[in-house]
Amino acid sequence: MKISTKGRYSLRMLLDLAMHQSEGYIALKEIAERQNISKKYLEQIVPLLNKSGLLKTNRGYQGGYMLSRPASKYTVGEILRLTEGSLAPISCLEGDFNDCTRQADCMTLPMWEGLYKVITDYLDNITLEDIIDTYTTANGGDYCI
Q1: Which residues partner with 64 through β-bridges?
Q2: pLDDT grade for 28, boundaries at 50, 70 and 90
Q3: I want to staple 71 with a disulfide (CB 3.0 to 4.6 A). Which of 18, 45, 87, 114 is the partner?
Q4: DSSP letter string, 29-96
């Protein structure tokens, strides 16, 4: 499994908003500058995050973006599933139902299911707040995402 730029940048954008949530709505330009990400690229990510309800937006003067809920309520798994689609290591595990014709005879299926469970259990139990807390502790209160 390889996480795309869209997934990584979405996570960085949401972490930036979490770190600056006390400042109210944050302009995309500020996030782009702090994260060294193209504003144009962030503009492509925002509709996906906004449509899914992860962001609140405010247009006009003092406009920008903010998280729609506390950082402790966003999991990395949720964010990556939104941006990447599935986190399944093989295609037959991507949907709700495994319709693979080799399912009954696949010796490796239990191994792949175990890996998928480990991935989802891990990513679904890490929040934006956890990442910020870990980083802040490791860096003595200084941060740069």
Answers
A1: 58
A2: very high
A3: 18
A4: HHHHHHHT--HHHHHHHHHHHHHTTSEEEE-STT-EEEESS-GGG-BHHHHHHHHHS---SSGGGSSS
